[in-house]
Every structure is written in structure tokens, then in C-alpha cells.
Design goal:
3 helices; alpha+beta; six-stranded mixed sheet; binds tetrahydrodeoxyuridine; 161 residues; Cytidine Deaminase, domain 2
């Protein structure tokens, strides 16, 4: 038996002001996107924005449905929009922000498993890591260098043989 330790590096900033202007601009784009969340069922609002390699910023918010399994996450809305508007352009970084209306909105929430996998696919497609910035309305900000940091034992096209 062997044990393998997988180390994940997360940068933690006390406030968004500690980040670069490029990062804070992207956080602000995600916060603006959050206002377009359609989430009457969960009340959980998510906004997401991507900075593409060509400098474009594309955003998305979660869109819910009375048939609950049809709810679409903010990150998937945003990534689908990237593919539709800028096919063939890689993404440099993504900002994600949430507000549950219940828990304090001052702590970062990490994307769900499906969103992590969807971001990973974008990385694989363009062979380019995507920085992921996570934050609430205020307070600490988490940053990782790749979706792989959120999916240590990830599954990808390479596993299909
Ligand atoms: N949601 C997202 O938009 N992104 C995530 O990564 C996690 C969950 C949305 C889906 C649903 O509308 C609400 O948050 C509650 O799960």
C-alpha cells in the first residue's frame, strides 16, 4: 500500500482590495452578473465572469426552473456564452461570487462539482490553465491557479484512452 499526498495551493486574500486591478475588475463584473440571477426557488444567487485571452469579459448568472434539475449554474451559463461568442479563444481567469440571502455573504463559496468539471474541460480544450477567483459580497477572496486544484483526482478526456 502506498499513500499519495496531493497538495493544493489556495491564495487567501483578506479583502478584494489586495488583488490586482485586473482581478478586482473581474470580481466587479461577476458581482454585476449576480444581479441577473434568476433564482426564485433557492434564493441562492451566483454571478460569474471570465476574462478571455483576447481581453473580452463574458459573464453569466444562475438560471433556475420550477423543474429543479433543469437549473443552470452561473459558471455553465458563462462558459456556454464564451463558447458561443468567442469560439476558439481561451479563458485566462474566472471570478465567481455568491449570495445566499441566508448565510453571511462575506465568505467565498467554491463552485459545485459539475462546474469544476466544466471549467476543467475548457482548460483541456485550450491546453491552458484557468485561474479561479472566489468571493462573497465582501470579505476574504480565494484564488486557485486551475480547476485541477479543485478536482485533485480529476477525470478528463485522456482517461477515455
Ligand atoms: N449554483 C451555481 O450557479 N453555481 C454553483 O457552482 C453552485 C450552485 C446555483 C444553482 C442553483 O440555482 C443555486 O445555485 C442553488 O444550488
Amino acid at each position: 500500500m502506498q499513500e499519495k499526498e496531493i497538495t493544493v495551493r489556495i491564495q487567501i486574500y483578506e479583502t478584494a482590495q489586495e488583488l490586482s486591478q485586473v482581478d478586482t475588475d473581474l470580481i466587479n463584473a461577476a458581482r454585476e452578473a449576480l444581479t441577473k440571477s434568476y433564482s426564485p426557488y433557492s434564493g441562492f444567487k451566483v454571478g460569474s465572469a471570465a476574462l478571455l485571452q483576447n481581453g473580452a469579459v463574458v459573464s453569466g448568472a444562475n438560471q433556475e426552473n420550477a423543474a429543479y434539475p433543469m437549473c443552470v449554474c452561473a459558471e455553465v451559463v458563462m462558459l456556454s456564452s464564451c463558447s458561443a461568442q468567442y469560439p476558439g479563444i481561451a479563458i485566462n481567469k474566472i471570478a465567481i461570487t455568491t449570495n445566499s440571502g441566508k448565510l453571511p455573504a462575506s465568505s467565498p463559496k467554491a463552485p459545485c462539482g459539475q462546474c469544476r468539471q466544466t471549467i476543467l474541460e475548457y482548460e483541456k480544450r485550450f491546453n491552458s490553465n484557468i485561474e479561479i477567483i472566489m468571493c462573497g459580497e465582501n470579505g476574504q477572496v480565494y484564488k486557485v491557479g486551475s480547476a485541477k486544484d479543485l478536482l485533485p483526482l480529476y477525470f478528463s478526456g485522456a482517461d477515455l484512452g
